[in-house]
Amino acid sequence: MNEHLIVECRCSASASKRPKFRNFDPMNIPSKYVEEAVEQFSSLPGIGKRTALRLVLNLLKRNPDELERFGDVLQQLKTHVQSCSSCGNISDTPVCSICANEKRNHRLICIVEDIRDVMAIESTGTYQGIYHVLGGIISPMDGIGPNDLFIQPLVDKCMAGSADEIILALSPTMEGDTTNFFLYKKLHASNVQITTLSRGIAVGSEIQYADEITLSRSIQQRIPFQS
Prior knowledge:
Elements (H helix, E strand, L loop, with lengths): L2 H15 L14 H11 L6 H12 L3 H17 L1 E2 L6 E2 L5 H4 L4 E8 L2 H8 L6 E5 L18 H8 L5 E4 L5 H14 L5 E4 L15 H9 L2 E2 L3
Parallel strand pairs: 3-4, 3-5, 5-6
Antiparallel strand pairs: 1-2, 6-7
Helix pairs in contact: 2-3
């Protein structure tokens, strides 16, 4: 028999003896409590059933004090974290630390989609104004319209003359540009200077994934929105 054929036969025989996990069902679990925990973890974005099961099994190995602390942290997350009444950022107090900082320029407002963009811009160390967190962007495909976003308080601020410049710092995607244009139309009558990030941020990318140097330059070299 050909030597290569013998090797192939042996490999096939070995492969047939290996356990097959292709049809593995992570929900075939002999505990309803573990099954429920897996369901809850897998409801989080980016967490599949296999990953959820691995996390749950890891928690089972921990001592009771660690598990209790884990549960307390989750409860406190929902109980104590709130939205800043001024900008919509997440905070442990009614007004976030950025809005409460008197050293910041409160007449310079940077409009962002969510907290991740605030963190990204803050990491550059070059921006000294405050923020306004929309809580999303206009996306008809996802059923998100202007009324679903934190927009009106921003309009009220501008109309009251509480801002000198608005920076539209939304991700340069179709939805981001649509939201930018909507905000521009809403705020144009207030005579506030409206700028946007220079296109050092690649079109189609997201703010939170930009490197610090590119993001810093985009902030510093912002341009009038009309252009």
